[in-house]
Structures are given as C-alpha cells and as structure tokens.
Amino acid sequence: LVDTTPTQPQQKSEEQKLKNYIDKAKLLGFLVKEIPTECGHNCILTSKSDNQHIIYIPDNVIILNTDVNIDENKDENILTFTKHIRDLHGTIKIIGGHKLQDTRFMFCKCKAQSLDLSSFDTSNIIRMNNMFKWCEAQFIDLSSFDTHNVTNMHGMFCGCKAQSLDLSSFDISNVVNITKMLR
Fold first, then answer.
1. What is the rounded distance in angstroms from the CA atom of residue 18 to the CA atom of residue 138?
2. Which residues contact 112 (CB under 8 A, 6 or more apart)?
3. Checking DSSP bridges between strand 42-49 and strand 52-57, what pairing results, if any?
4. 129 in Cβ contact with 177 (< 8 Å)
5. How does pLDDT run across 159-179, given as a tens digit for each residue?
6. What global pTM score does this model have?
C-alpha cells in the first residue's frame, strides 16, 4: 500500500500522497478509517479483516496524543490517537512516521496480539515514554527501531505483556529519563 511512484522534481503534496494511499487501499478491498492525532492531522487505519490492520502515519503527523499522565485508575479516553486503536485485535502493522516526534502512550492498553513495527520510521522520535504501557501484545517487533534521538523512555514497557523484548539495537545515549522503563 505504500506509494512507490518515483519522486518528481516537484514532490506531491502530503494531501495527494494520502489520497493516493486511501484510493489504493480501497481498490484492494481494505476498510479505511481516519484516526485523529493531537497535531490535528489524521493517520489512516486500513483493515483487511478483524485481525489484520495497517496504520499509515503520514509525514504531517508529529505527535499522536496529548501530554497527560495516565494511571491505571484514570480513563485513557483522552488519548487522541490511542483510543481509536486500543481495541483492535490480531496484528497491527505501523508504516510511515518519518516526521513523528512523540509516541507517548501510543499502544497504551492495546489489545492486539502482535505489533509489527518493522516498517515504522522512528528516526525522529524524541519521546517514547509510556509507549507500550499495559500493552497486551505477546509479540512486538522492535528490530528496526531507531532510538538515537529519544530523550524520554520513562515507563516505556511498564506493564507490557510481551513474552520477550529484544532491545539490543536500542541507542539510549541521549535518553535522560529511563525510570520505570521495564517495570
């Protein structure tokens, strides 16, 4: 579903790229839904079935959720992006995200069994705090995570139910807050 049209000297606008992505998804029989984000631009959720989902994060999205402090007893419905994806089951694949800077609470209480993040561009993310907080996914592919710009990983995997986490490729040289990361 990723647009592989060669780039011309005059690049397509983000709106045109998004329209092309949506048109291709619909043509392939995917259900398409827009997911709002805190920065006012939408991500696109495409689903082929109840158990296979792709979320495209366009270049105009820089932050997903409000800067809030969520605990187990608070209603996380205030999370702009997360409240729209947390009840998805099966596999969620994330693509795009080139200009994304903030993934706080992205998968908070997510019920998916598997997160395929192998095509998720994390190279510009600064804040990953609480990203997988109370996430129920048994498998999380972190093999392509670029964390060299991340400064905050507080509570990143707090309460996460993944069977194993391979963090060997994580560059934490710029992280200033790593408290409760694996609690």
1. 31
2. 53, 88, 89, 90, 91, 92, 136, 137
3. antiparallel
4. yes
5. 999 999 999 999 999 999 999
6. 0.87
